[in-house]
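Quick one - first record:
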Amino acid sequence: MNIHEYQAKDILKSYGVVVPAQKLAETPEVAVNAARQLFEETKTAVFVLKAQIHAGGRGKGGGVKIAKNVEEVYQLADQIIGMQLVTPQTGPEGKKVNKIIVSEDVYYPGASEPSEIYLSVLLDRAKGCDVIMASTEGGVDIEEVAEQTPEKIIKEWVDPKVGLQAYQARKVAFALGLEGLALKNMIKFITNIYKAYRGIDASQVEINPVLKASDDAIIAVDAKINLDDNALYRHKDFIALRDESEEDPLEVEASKSGLNYVKLDGNVGCMVNGAGLAMATMDMIKLSGGEPANFLDVGGGANAQTVEAGFRIILQDPNVKAILINIFGGIVRCDRVASGVVEAYKNIGQIDIPIIVRLQGTNAEEGAKIIEESGLRVVSAILLKDAADCVKEALV
């Protein structure tokens, strides 16, 4: 589950990570009041306004502005709030900005120039370890650094059974070229970031940039946290952090029905039981000349209700020209799924696109018979090749 920057910073602050003072605003008027409060609390005279959407690269699209005084805050907030912000991560359609944060400017002058650092913690699935990634090239896309200057990326693997060791935090801080007070502060910063990562069951914590200020303070200027959905039962308070307006409406609807759904850009809707089978089904669709319109896993306990919910979600995509249902009857019986397909078809009413149902496993023959005798515009298939041929014919 993705959360907003302001929410991520609040979480990190609770773990001792230094973050800029910030206020949330949904209107220009509230933004001005927030700036005045920040001035009273921090004496900052310069304010940073940042759009809150679930996408990076906001500055490139005009979603980050600097206000040199309180008077400028209203004007800039009015420009950002309500805009359709397009970034490299939103696609050409962009995302509407509903809220911003107003924060203090931490790039204050001093004896030395500030520097920006990249830092993240995530799971390295290949090694079965957490990995801390850091780079002196903060403030830019880490993908560009990895491609152009990979030697500038520092990696330190952490055994999750024993956790981050003190020497590892020191190793990363030294590798960043820090010394003195900045070194000490960075060691503490890395330690607290990892504590937060483990404590909240995150799948990723990314700070870009981490600011080494002119007084050697180490500050999380930005923050991105992805929470592990499978661990939310241990953090019920985090469920309230979900912003459904930032998610695809069909994906939100699917999650409410207990379906795993991801919208894609193709023309063949697919409904399967099991993630592995879903990936194989999507490959099969491509080999047959189509493009998958979605990833939809109804789970091992597929029934009439889940099948109907899946149908309704897929049919809301105007690009779908055919639907492929591919079910392996292990836990679930194929005849029950077939009955669910027929029932869902009747409940929904007129469906103008062909539906191919491939059933294999427990009671597959009985399921195929139910489909064939239903009199509906549903094609039954047993073999994977047969299903592929049916998809190919449907797209002609």
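second record:
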Amino acid sequence: MKAIAFLFLVVALFGAVASTRDEPRDPVVEAYRGLVAQDLRLATVGYHLAKGSAEYCRNTWRNPGWVLHDLRQYPDTDLAQRAFTFREPVSIAALVADGPAIRAGLSVGDGLAGFGGSEIWYGGEPVKKRATSERLDNVRDQVAGALAGDGLFRALVTTDTGRKTIAFDPPRVCASDFWVDVRSKRDAGADGERVRVTSGLIEYVADDDELAAVVAHEMAHNLLDHRARIERTKSGKTAVIKSTEEEADRLSIWLMSNAGYDPEAAISFWQRYGKATSLGIFSAPTHYRWQDRVRMFREEIERMASHVVKNGRRDPPLLAEHRSIK
């Protein structure tokens, strides 16, 4: 996470918490815990979306269903240790309910010590003592490498009873990682692998169905390799981007339905947001007006209703087309 943005969030949450001064709670500790709660909410919605259409995605990877954090990512490490349990510098902050990691017996606070027989070297103190996610990103890359193949994933973890190796087999799901961008601005994006949603937007959505509408749209960009398509475009890039936005809107409906979220939430979100702002996230010549997006959502919901259902899911036409590309 971005350290400066994180500090802004702490200040903002301090204002909200400080009104109840009689409560024996540290506002910064509560802010840290609130951020992890947002991380878990986004990770849970993302995990269900990725799992729901896994059999239809060409781009897949394995997701353990956990949220990791690093003591160094927090501006005040002493308060972070009060807020959370860190059995290793990088530890489990939260677990997706009924996800692979929690089913394997892992717990919040368990620390990552190694993978595949090799221990993680965390190193000494940073050159500059400041909040940074550099070490966390490095560990995430190691996790991704260890999960790249098939078979059991063996993690050396430090638990409340000591170190042990936990072996489990996270299933392949549609490929996307998810992270909270700690800013009040209502915004979201995708970079080809990761889906970013701001704290402000997470707080704005009415419920998890609306959050799923936002995440599914961004995830669709990753699943359809839109970033690579746009980068290959030499001329007429605006038209290409607008085309990818339509595809992401249409695919999002199918992803939501396959994960058990209500596709109508995409309509409710854009009607409310569009009427309130008329401008904002995704508003540019490369994007459709919110009224047009609502029309496309309705068209896609109607189209989806006529497709064959298999085990409660439907094969999205855009993913079927994507699988056919050589």
